[in-house]
Write a structure and sequence with these properties.
single chain; Transcription Regulator spoIIAA; alpha/beta; five-stranded mixed barrel; six-stranded parallel β-sheet; 19 strands; 12 helices; Rossmann fold
Amino acid sequence: MCDASPALRYYIYTWGCQMNEAESGAMARLLDSLGAAAAPEAAQADLVLLVTCCVREKPEQKVYSLLGKLRQLKARRPGMRIAVTGCMAQKEAERIRQRVPEVDLVLGPRQLYRLPQLLDENGGPRLELSLETGHAFCASTHSWRQGAAPGLSEFVTIIQGCTNFCSYCIVPYVRGPECSRPAAEVEAEVRILAARGCREVTLLGQNVLAYGKDAGELDFVGLLERLQEVPGLRRLRFTTCHPQDLDERVVVAMARLPLVCPHLHLPIQHGDDEILRRMNRPYTVAEYEARLAALRRAVPGIAVSADLLVGFPGEREEHFQRLLETVRRLELEGAFMFAYSPRPGTAAAALPDQVPGPEKRRRLRELIRVQNEVTERLHAGRVGQVHEVLVAGPSERDPGRLAGRTGTFHQVVFAGPPGLEGEMVKVRLQRARRWGFYGELIS
């Protein structure tokens, strides 16, 4: 293994999902454990890491734009090394090598643990490709936590990969098949985090509800039950979930397990059955609504968010109008909303009747408007409620106040005394905003 010099400075750029955020943190901790240190900016770094996303075209464009700037920087500082990691690295390895030969390392998502071995000991530039996806979980990361001071909220990956093959999605091709992490490793990492001051853990995966189905010793509910006993842990969240796997056991577990937060991100993607079928999403709108209704009966006050996609090939105006009707009916607290972006190699990229770009953008604007109306109305209905808030510290919006999140994942800004960071306090929601609430500390 390469032993990073204390003089080695690194800088990390991150695009995309929470999995990428978690992997950025893991690489930073790994480098720190070898004696490296974070640089304040890329221009001062000896190693620049790009943790990339390829779910949509725009993040890829941003990566190539940044690589163009970094190659100029490297021309002035030849000893600097550039590493491209993440999903785009897996998908675009050869193209990256051809377009930007200054890149020294291309590392796929399941090979991040090899970073120390792949860094050149003498500091000289070399191109190394490490792109295997395989059927095994990426090597244990919980030991990387030993020297790190965690935040109050941390991500813990429990499953990698995806085997659903939605027709629009590149993830199964770049992250490989589903593979669950051993429950003992998950628990060990969570215990380390809680012992060092972390109070809230979010379990991560492309589909966390599939945990254990690849011959694991525990299923997802069993893992949630096991983590209830971790000393110091106050909250458990998880994301993201496939609606087909939201069964009665998961719903009941969310209702009865005290650490599980009353919040769920449950992507529906579209509100028309024909478009869902073309997307290879194995449920109907009615089936999604039935699962959502069961969840709301079991967990009163739960906040549910989703992903929504417009402009999928073949989406006509009547399909889009049914999507808007569905969004109004579902009453989601929030949504991540996107225009469809063709991903080469996916089934949808070859479909006829691609929707023109200007029309996709128009539909996206209209969808955002409708969802914002729903969000504002639901938030207004929560005014007066009292929630437990995990205090994160001073508010970025209003530095004279504190900020934190409710169990329903709503952001709350409120006045309070110093010294509350990390505490769970009760706050009455007073003024609603689209982003969250202003509140009043009551205990």
